[in-house]
Design a protein that fits this description.
binds pyridoxal-5'-phosphate; seven-stranded mixed beta sheet; Aspartate Aminotransferase, domain 2; 12 strands; Aspartate Aminotransferase, domain 1; 2 domains
Length: 387
């Protein structure tokens, strides 16, 4: 019967930026040029050393299923990275390899939440988090991360949001959409709160390695009561390859593995081989790509300020600028569509990331600096014509 869509499916809100992409593509198909600053999909190609490893793996027949947990070599490489980068011991037995960070969220929330359980999220945050939580019967509870506080949740407001149903506090540093990093004292305080209340911290560390001014810290430096999500999409420019992993506390590993076994079987075999090569061999490529993003950031932030947008908190990581655009319109979704149609510039509407993001636009700098200049110049002309 086509007339009944489940309540669970209806609870999943559209990922608005993907609708924005569709609109931009529609205009492009009509011959319009659109400067694309919408999705966080690196324009830089996947490093050769990774692509070659995948080719060799395919040629040598690495095309079948692997263990659901993932190839031991890949899990060893992840474990070695935790040791060398953060000085943290993570056993390969606590790492479940997934087809990206997104499926790792299903494993995490699927193994942690019963119906009615609550997850504390920052507002704004990556839009998939509340959708995963709600899809699994959980309740997303938002705590404001105000620009005036450097987009950090206040520790006392997190504590005030904790109820007997709270299961975990979700963090994402460096963050999408803000491009900001939580200082170690926040990680320590959030870890301490989780321990005090018998909760877990879920830390999405997908933008680790793309911090331009500081040092990354994993939540596992501060507590064992934590899940870590990570993936290869951003750091290694591998969005379409689909590879990530979950690090889970021991009690949750077997349940997460069972979800992976049943729902996904395993991540692609040759992609796992390529991911291993990424960890072992692609550090120089990562350094090169990070320098490119940083150059773009150093151009874009002052340029956006120069045309009347407010960037209150300096972004220092990932590839996003989250700019207050209320001067141009308080309805960020309507403004986004106007900018695509009238200025030929696509950004992401801040409201997609939560009520606190309303009035903001997220600009991704995953396009060349000349295109960024073109985008800024179009926005400047658009705003001048509007006055
Ligand atoms: C914070 C965050 N987590 C997860 C993802 C999805 O990552 P993946 O491609 O590994 O599924 C994204 C993608 O934009 C993201 O910004």
């Amino acid at each position: 019967m086509p007339d009944h869509v489940s309540a669970r499916a209806k609870a999943v809100r559209p990922f608005v930026v993907m609708d924005v992409v569709a609109r931009a593509k529609e205009l492009e198909a009509q011959g319009r040029d659109v400067v694309r600053m919408d999705v966080g999909d690196p324009d830089l190609p996947t490093p050769d050393v990774i692509t070659r490893a995948a080719e060799a793996a395919m040629e040598s027949g690495d095309t079948g299923y692997t263990q659901s947990m993932g190839l031991p070599d890949l899990r060893d490489a992840v474990s070695a990275r935790f040791a060398s980068k953060y000085g943290v011991t993570v056993s390969r037995d606590d790492i479940v390899v997934t087809q990206g960070t997104s499926p790792a969220m299903l494993l995490l929330f699927g193994s942690l939440l019963d119906p009615g359980d609550e997850v504390i999220l920052s507002d704004p945050c990556y839009p998939a988090y509340p959708n995963y939580v709600a899809f699994l019967g959980g309740v997303p509870v938002r705590v404001r991360a105000r620009a005036s506080d450097g987009f950090r949740m206040r520790i006392e407001e997190i504590e005030a949001a904790i109820t007997p149903r709270t299961r975990c506090i979700m963090i994402n540093s460096p963050s999408n959409p803000m491009g900001t990093v939580l200082p170690p004292e926040d990680l320590r305080a959030i870890a301490a709160l989780a321990e005090k209340h018998g909760l877990y911290v879920a830390s999405d560390e997908i933008y680790h390695g793309l911090d331009f001014t500081g040092t990354d810290h994993t939540i596992l430096e501060y507590t064992d009561r934590a899940f870590v999500l990570n993936g290869f999409s951003k750091l290694y420019a591998m969005t379409g390859w689909r590879l990530g992993y979950l690090v889970a506390p021991r009690d949750f590993v077997r349940p997460a593995e069972a979800i992976q076994q049943n729902f996904f079987l395993c991540a692609n075999h040759f992609v796992q081989v390529a991911g291993t090569a990424a960890l072992l061999k692609a550090d120089p490529d990562v350094a090169r790509m990070r320098a490119i993003y940083d150059e773009r950031r150093r151009y874009l932030v002052p340029a956006l300020r120069g045309i009347g947008l407010t960037v209150e908190v300096e972004p220092t990581a990932a590839f996003y600028v989250f700019a207050d655009a209320k001067e141009w319109g308080s309805d960020s979704l309507a403004l986004t569509y106007r900018l695509i149609d009238e200025a030929g510039v696509a950004a992401a509407p801040g409201v997609d990331f939560g009520p606190e993001g309303e009035g903001f636009l997220r600009f991704s700098y995953v396009t060349g600096i000349e295109r960024l200049r073109e985008g800024v110049s179009r926005l400047q002309s658009w705003s001048a014509a509007r006055l």
